Amino acid sequence: MSDARANILRRLRAAPAGITQPSSDWSVLRDRNWSMEEQIERFRTMAESVNARVIDCVAPDDASRPLPSWDAVLAEDCAANGVRRLAVSAPLAAPLQALWTGSPNRPDIILTADRDTLFSVDAGLTTARGGIAETGSLILWPGPTEPRMLSLVPPRHIALLRTSRLHPTLWHAMTENGWAGQMPTNVVLATGPSKTSDIEQTLVFGVHGPKDLLILLIYDH
Amino acid sequence: MSHAPHQTHDFRAGIDAGLHDTTLRANFRRAMDGLMTKRAKQFEDPQEWTRLRALGQEIRQRALSKLPDLLERLEENCTRNGIHVHWAEDVAQANAIILGILQQRGITTVVKGKSMVSEEMHLNAFLGGHGIRALEADLGEYIIQLAGQMPCHIVMPAIHLNKTQIADLFADKLGTSPDGQDAEALTAIAREKLREEFRTAGAGISGVNFPVAETGTLCLIENEGNGRMVTTVPPVHIAVTGIEKVVENLEDVTPLLRLLTRSATGQPITTYVNMISGPRRGADQDGPQEVHLVLIDFGRSRVYADPETRQTLQCIRCAACMNHCPVYVRVGGHAYGGVYPGPIGKILTPQLNGLAEYPDHPSASSLCNACVEVCPVKIPIAQMLVRLRNEKAGKGTGAVQDAGSGGSLLEDAAWKAWATTYSSPLAYRVASAAMTAVGNALPASAPLLKAWTSVRTKPRFAAQSLHRTLKEMGVADE
Question: Which SUPFAM superfamilies does the record match to this protein (chain A) (predicted)?
């Protein structure tokens, strides 16, 4: 194996210099002077264009805006879609339990990283590290408190996204937060539910990943 | 390579079959029209397109200019992240590496994400021969695996089949009903079949769109979630990628991503962009326990050795060149025989596998330049086709494998005669007069002429030359 490595590198090093271009102009990516309102609208338009559902809400203790609390929206959506078993991200389990205690018809809150359990639940609830306005994408950053499978294997994915965490583009999200110095094992950008056009270019949602993506957009900016 | 060195691919037979298959032509026409329209919508602002692709070209050429250093850096950072890095010069080495990893762990079933490199390796057949079941998980790949075919398009592998053909295939292989199945119902069948496979497979195998040297990150883009499944659920993840794909910095991914998804399927972004930087670590709750990266050469270092042909390696595999190619749209992907069809295949396949095996690839083009206009990283495909034609005739630098294998003394003599005639006014006049006299009398089936007229109507020569006609009309300085 080490021979292969040495041979390949030797051949590459023996090659003459190739063609290069002068440093390019990155402004085509950088120049996005969108206000917060523009970013929110852009995010919503782009996410909805690929069948994600975006519902505006606030934190449970926030009375500053005439918007419903995210846990109420979540409960209503679970009821409407027959979600009885909801797997949740660890930091959300205790607050949700507290908010829902005593309320009737709430789904079971399941806190697990067990593969077979996650394959059998009705929906997964995760946080989002941020959002990308340009493309309507969620930045998922699974780790010790949130299994990777939580946003992947249940047929429905519900994500909490704070408006203060919106970035104009992926480039902004990446460079302003210094991703290059702290990449976790897995980062996923998710834009809408899973889809395919492999059969006659007919768009079908829900292939191997979730069939439905609900984004609870929490206004906190 | 795994092919016999001098077994020539019969491109002409493939073209003939493709042109006469009316279902195939209808399926392709519809698909390519759709893809072209969607792409055009994404690049409506010509200024943005120009600036973005200049950036894309710069990033790819910068990466190639430092390729050996970046590969070492990629290896170092992947290793630091806990990814095992392997190197393979040829198909046999790469297959042996993967087989070794699987056999050591007693793995008998693997699920696969889409990977063109694994097609170069004929990996599924190889593993099958060693009692390991390799199951394609991308819907299009799943369909063609069931059908026992090769992909006919690098982004949409099953685009040559319509839903009736797929419903019949599923009925035959999976026992589902062939009647009344639309795309949604067929997708649901595949979802159900594959879900259990993802849950229980011993390993997942994927390709890589952008390996990042700076961070040791493997970027993988996809819409279906199969890429996430194969890289997340099984305990072992094996990624395979060509050495040329590496990019220098994490931020380099952003313009390339934008160019790739918009050029390929007309999407602003794919549903999923996976950025994988190692197996589970620390307190991570899931993800594979092991991640392997197999870096493959398979002739790429030879393509790299020449500064002009090296531009072939800028490719980010968007397939826009095939979607816009008047030849590809009509003959379909299977006619090309190699793993990579269309314009990029016409320059890449003969360079990787040799001009002796693929002698007709460089000539199957009118040099219309449609591919060059849509290439998001500005690969001069037409210029490269001409270069390969020269190499085949032994008129290049000899840098390409099997250079000179297609030389023809007759062709040389013909071009020499042409050059002599066109550089002497007297010879030119005599020759054109002779052409009129003899040319029209000559039957289309005459030797030498036959090869050309077999697919074209023989032209009728005018009674006198345009030159002369104009002179008679009194045009003094034509």
Answer: NagB/RpiA/CoA transferase-like
